[in-house]
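User: Could you go from structure to sequence for me? I need the amino acid at each position, not a summary. Structure tokens:
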């Protein structure tokens, strides 16, 4: 075994077919703007902007500089009982961008931690108000809320849950998902059919009694399950039902927040304000791991009771509000503002939609879905080997066309940079077409 191969052997990769990968590794060693590079100098166009993370491009000079300065000035400070100036500034900045009434921010280090934090806040909120019986949590089939026990339990992606089935947290139920290829295939933007699926929440309120339900968590547009936009009116209806039953609504905006849907938050794009918003990824442009849970005044105020010398929520992370991450976050917010990134993203939507939907008559393709700058091309699985066609397309894109795309089973997913250039989008989709043409 060569040194490189044995080193690779030590690395157990996340959400990756390790043995298949190690037989032919795809290793990135550099990035700049919209391109990755490898040690041999190959440039690859990134069609997934990191992992939905890096909307303004890789190694943005302004963010790099902010991180370099901060790490030399304050590398770390205790996050409990003292804090740092950058965390304070970022909390203020982000809540000012959030929908009205969402004025408080709790920092985490990832999307998964944001979700579990949000679920704990929801339970604590009800208990603080004397409704400690509200413990039931409602997620949705095909929802992805990270990989910690809370998020996995409210999540609805079967392979993520399968081997942990017996250990998932109790008292969770799920709404049905809204993917309906039979009725909605090739919808541009929001699909016409399915608003009635919001009534599932009424059904679950009838089953468990709404007074026992603490919170409902959904992604405004399901991402990891293959880009599933909601039917028009669906999120509004969930909000109404939550209000009727005193249930908190959580939007998991780990993907949607910070411009992916052309607005600071998906909540604003849809005109529906939840009680809690979870974020990560675009908070720092992916440069330093960081997440944030944004909560309404009502939720926050419920905790701010009792003796003032007492901790209100026994929860937090060593790295909550890490100064270097917060500096990256502040620089990212500057770039969003100064470069008009969200407006740019909105202006790209139509072109992105047209490019995606030009695959409607491509062989194997059974659906194309898009909203904002989230897109998916779903292919029929090969008989007996689901996921093989998508996996082959991913690898061929990398090796033959020098583009990085993501496949979730047989669904190709696309997360263009918020500041993509139209000609880059055209060229990269032309490359995807050559790949899809070439696979059986
Ligand atoms: C909606 C949503 N929630 C939570 C997560 C988990 O985030 P992380 O991988 O940072 O833990 C993701 C990751 O893609 C996500 O898309």
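Assistant: Here is the amino acid at each position, in order:
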């Amino acid at each position: 075994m060569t040194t490189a191969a044995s080193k690779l052997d030590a690395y157990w990769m996340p959400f990756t077919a390790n043995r298949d990968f190690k037989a032919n590794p795809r290793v990135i060693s550099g990035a700049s703007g919209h391109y990755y590079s490898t040690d041999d100098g190959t440039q690859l166009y990134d069609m997934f902007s990191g992992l939905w993370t890096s909307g303004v491009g890789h190694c943005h000079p302004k963010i790099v500089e902010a991180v370099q300065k901060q790490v030399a000035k304050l590398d770390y400070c205790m996050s409990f009982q003292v804090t740092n100036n950058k965390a304070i500034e970022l909390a203020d900045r982000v809540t000012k961008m959030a929908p009205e009434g969402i004025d408080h921010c709790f920092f985490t280090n990832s999307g998964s931690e944001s979700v579990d934090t949000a679920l704990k806040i929801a339970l604590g909120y009800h208990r603080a108000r004397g409704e400690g019986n509200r413990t039931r949590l409602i997620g949705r089939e095909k929802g992805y809320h990270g990989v910690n026990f809370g998020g996995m339990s409210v999540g609805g992606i079967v392979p993520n849950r399968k081997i942990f089935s017996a250990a998932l947290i109790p008292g969770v139920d799920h709404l049905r998902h809204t993917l309906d290829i039979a009725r909605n295939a090739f919808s541009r933007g929001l699909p016409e059919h399915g608003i009635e699926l919001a009534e599932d929440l009424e059904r679950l309120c009838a089953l468990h009694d709404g007074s026992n339900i603490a919170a409902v968590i959904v992604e405004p547009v399901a991402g990891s399950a293959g880009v599933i936009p909601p039917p028009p009116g669906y999120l509004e209806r969930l909000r109404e039902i939550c209000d009727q039953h005193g249930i908190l609504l959580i939007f998991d905006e780990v993907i949607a927040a910070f411009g992916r849907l052309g607005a600071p938050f998906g909540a604003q794009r849809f005109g529906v304000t939840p009680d809690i918003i979870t974020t990560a990824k675009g908070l720092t442009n992916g440069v330093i791991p960081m997440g944030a849970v944004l909560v309404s005044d009502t939720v926050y105020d419920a905790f701010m009771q009792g003796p003032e010398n007492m901790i209100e929520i026994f929860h937090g992370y060593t790295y909550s509000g890490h100064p270097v991450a917060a500096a990256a976050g502040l620089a990212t917010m500057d770039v969003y503002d100064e470069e008009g990134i969200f407006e740019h993203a909105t202006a790209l939507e139509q072109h992105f939609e047209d490019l995606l939907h030009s695959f409607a008559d491509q062989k194997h393709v059974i659906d194309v879905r898009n909203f904002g700058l989230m897109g998916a091309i779903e292919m029929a699985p090969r008989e007996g080997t689901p996921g093989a066609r998508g996996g082959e397309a991913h690898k061929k894109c990398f090796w033959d066309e020098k583009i990085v795309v993501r496949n979730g089973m047989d669904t190709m997913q696309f997360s263009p940079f918020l500041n993509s250039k139209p000609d880059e989008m055209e060229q990269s989709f032309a490359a995807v077409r050559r790949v899809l043409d070439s696979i059986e």
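One structural detail worth keeping in mind: The two ends are 34 Å apart (CA to CA).
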